[in-house]
Amino acid sequence: MATEATPDAYETLLDHVRKYTYVGDGIGILRWDQEVMMPEAGTPARAKQLSTLSTMRHDLLTDPELGELLDELDADTLDDEKAAVVREVRREHERAVEVPADLVERMSEATSNALPVWKEAKAEDDFARFEETLAELIELNREYAAEIDPDRDPYAVLFEEYEPYLGIDTAEAVLTELRESLVPLIDDIAASDVTLADPFEGTYPEDAQEALVREALDDLGYDWDRGRLDTAPHPFSSGNQFDARVTTRFAADDPLEAIGSTIHEFGHATYTLGLPQEQYGTPLGESRDLSVHESQSRLWENHVGRSRPFWDHFTPRLTEHLGVEASPQDFYETANTVDPTNLIRIEADELTYHMHIVLRFEIERDLIRGDLDVADVPQVWNEKMDEYLGVRPETDAEGCLQDIHWTHGSFGYFPTYSLGSVLAAQLYAAAERDLGSLDDRIQNGAFEDLHEWLTENVHRHGARYETDALVQKATGEAFTAEYFLEYANEKYGDLYDL
Prior knowledge:
Layout: H1 9-36, H2 43-62, H3 64-74, H4 80-96, H5 101-123, H6 128-148, H7 154-159, H8 168-191, H9 206-220, E1 229-231, E2 237-240, E3 243-248, H10 255-273, H11 289-304, H12 308-322, H13 328-335, H14 353-369, H15 377-389, H16 415-435, H17 439-443, H18 448-457, H19 467-475, H20 482-495
Parallel strand pairs: 1-3
Antiparallel strand pairs: 2-3
Helix pairs in contact: 1-2, 1-3, 2-5, 3-4, 5-6, 8-14, 8-16, 8-20, 9-10, 9-12, 10-11, 11-16, 12-13, 14-15, 16-20
């Protein structure tokens, strides 16, 4: 017969969990500030601040009292919500207790110090300036993985930081399926004699572009009372259900870059803002890891923002703010032009994007496993770009220095982008099964029904369900790439007369 936990054990657990969650959110704000607003010379102090807070959070997470509370609650019969909280806290606690506090401190300080080094290396187009820093980050991550489980593949251990439930085997299988299916489609498009429209000529002022993307956020329903828009070298979203901020960046000759990145980050933010406020500080008020998070950003960016109905709705805004006179079809075509020669991942089209992910996944996996030397990264990067997309970067800034993720020490992160895109298509198909076609709603700027469906079926659950269970509950099916591949072939086959 199960032994009941003491009456206040669960509330004591929640109090403890809230403390380290709040510290973690404070860390997030300091990192946001470092990337968006902090003076360049602030790095030495910020590195110390972040390392101290990271150690504090780690100490709270590994506190033996927390382990005792978990053991006490495991012996009790809990309802589904409480059991989910205990499951999530135990998973994080058990990983954390294996990692020494001094390693957490060293990793935090190293990532803070890495940011300005990466910025300088990218600006100077000189990978050698970043090589030593990258080597340090890789070694720290190997050490981290070994502390958690020295007998397992270190990359698989790191991947579980970002997607703990789908598994590295699922990620590798999906990436292989995408590579095998999309490369022939991309080749067919390259061989097509169809040329899609491009109505953009010259350059467009940043203030006009900012007004345009702010209006896009208004249309989509971004809650400005709980958010803000800023610029960053690499767009990102950060925050919680009370404060979810987005960033974008502007290219003078390509307004679609800002539109796409802003809508993408809106997708992240609207997920965060849809988490239950009363559960803030607990797993029930946290997102379900990065594959699901990325599904929200990719759904809004691609299935909404790159759709023909969206451009029927949004075309007058471009004419008003940028003075571009073109048809909705023209804007739709340029938003969906497939260009294998584009070297930059965040500017890549919807199809070739995944080859960028495959490339990064293979390189970082080999780095962590010790199968690739850091000094060889630029050469291998360029060779893989040539193999997968038939293009070779002329500079490191356009090649292996373009992404910020390794600067953060985020190894194992990249596969979640493709997993998220696959899930986005599955969720969108499920939403249309429940709501009917969304085309008319999008064309009329009525995004509420889709937003409410996602909140009801994804956002409000927080981390109550494991990823596969959440997908099953939201869509009625197991996680599958079928919907994405069907969507991609139908959409681009139509655009390019394949």
